[in-house]
Amino acid sequence: ISWHAKEAIFSIDFQPKITNQPTRIATAGLDNNVRIWEYKKNEIRFLSNLSRHDKAVNIVRFSKSGLYLASAGDDATIIVWKMNEKEEAPNIFDPDNIGKNVEVWCAAKILRGHLEDINDLSWSSDDQHIVTGSVDHTAI
Description:
Keywords: Chromatin regulator, DNA damage, DNA repair, Nucleus, Repeat, WD repeat. By secondary structure, this protein is mainly beta. 0% of the residues lie in helices and 47% in strands.
C-alpha cells in the first residue's frame, strides 16, 4: 500500500467502534491529504481521500462518538469532516492509484484562528469542542 504517495505520515487514528460500521483508520501526512481506510483482520482497504488542506496535515483525530473527524496542519486550518452516507461516491481514483473513493466525507466545518502550523488537537467527550495547539504559541 502506498499510504500517502510515499510521503511522510504524521498522524494516524482509529475510529471508535460504531455499530454496523467497518473499523476505520484515518491517516494524515506531508502530501496535504487525509485518507480513510477500512481495517479488517489484518487487511487494509482504501475508502476515501480527503483533500481540502493546502499544506501538510499534522494531526487527525476522530471524535469520541466516531461520527466526526478533525484534521489540522501547516495551513493553520482545522477541518471537521463528516461522512455523507446519502451521497454516492464519485468515480474518482485516488492520486496514488490505490482505487476509487468508496465513501464520501464532507467538510462540515472549516475553522481558522491560529496564525501558524497546528500540531495537535483533542475532542471534548461530548463532541462539542475541539482544542488545538500551534507553533504560534497558542491553544484555541
